[in-house]
Amino acid sequence: MAHTPANTFTHGPLGLIFAKTALPIIFVMGMNGLLTVVDAIFLGRYVGPDALGAVTLIFPLYMVIVALATLVSNGMSSILARHLGANDHTAAARVFVGAHGMALLMSGVLIAGYLVFGRSVTLALASGSEPLAEMGQVYLAITAFMAPLAFILAVNSDALRNEGHVGFMAAMSLLVSLSNIGFNYLLIAIMGLGVAGSAWGTALAQLLALSIIIGFRITRKATLQPSMLLAHDWRANWTRILALGAPQSLSFIGIALSSAAVIVALQMVNTPKYESTVAAFGIMTRVMTFVFLPLLGLTHAMQSIVGNNFGAQAWDRSDQSLRIGIWIALVYCTLMQLAFVMLPEPIARLFVSDPGVIAEFARILPVNSAMLWLAGPLIVIATYFQAIGNATRAALLGLTKSYAFGLPLIFLLPLIWGEWGIWYAGPLAEVLMALLTAIVLYQTVSGLGLRRGLFTAPSGPQTA
Known about the structure:
One of its GO terms (biological process) is monoatomic ion transport. This is Multidrug export protein MepA. It holds the Pfam family MatE. With 464 residues, the protein is mainly α. The chain has one domain (14-448). The chain has 17 helices and no strands. The protein is globular.
């Protein structure tokens, strides 16, 4: 019988556990952001602006793929962490196998969707431009057919995190980023494969990492073994995976829809500097992505720590994990907001030299990010409900901002304040989200008996 590794989340100082768990994930998230930038540089310099434009056009479709992969891996992660925390390895194996089955089903649906709608959708996104549509379709075709690889890698990476192999998981993610850059340079700059080279570079990097992960599991250094895929039902836990993975999955789709809504709203209000404003918005989106990635890493780490301790019924530790997560998010987001208020022009100059774009960026960034300090703790609270398996509250707090507040406000506020209303929508959505969170926590006190709507332990935090 294989040796069962000790659970690294349920014992020891929580601060140190947070550092060991979160820092590698945050580093990997940053590398993923760097990959996005470098990929754009290769396409722009070695292929041309049309190639970069073609890949940009299918961003909403790419986000759908990311959202579905997140649906499976993140939904599995919440259940898996609690089973591992409770030392129920049989149940953990079932959800691990079920996630593989769902990953293959989802990727099959994506491939079928591309075969039916791929050509017409890319042509519509390209506004009828055949050359752009052709390049976009090449990129989308490779990405769609390689979706099973991306999905299975996402499932195994999240499983490694919950098994306590955070360092190895981070190393594999770093390998994906660095090898992707190397493959892209070879395929785009040296071999001249254009957008196809970009897509194949990603697939080859993912294949390399997944091969190493499978080898790691076969050596029985991991709790979850490949042989388990033959011992359990591939349809296990699908309903729970869907319910728990939906909030973050739909949040990715919400990001794509919000970006598209801003572009449409700018056209509706006839902004006088449309080209410069859109360019500034594009830079702001990249900057906010870089800010969001470390926060996402923090929430992933907190989910594993809270889930394991909650599953082990170590209520004081799961409560304290939440407190640590909220404070880190608050401090981090406050520092980022101060940087946005004080340094918008230097940030813009990192991307462009055009004075008009720099001026627009400096105008809209401080306004649009005015409530960033509040966003971090709210995201942590939503993730906490997901970590403890409360899918309803996790979905409510994870999806309302984009779908119920953000998108409508982007179109409604310009009716009052004109173009400025577009940039007020984000901060106002955060304020409304804070009010909704307060209502949910008040209801949770009476409905579930949790102190302040969050804490499970009957009294304050105990000594870890």
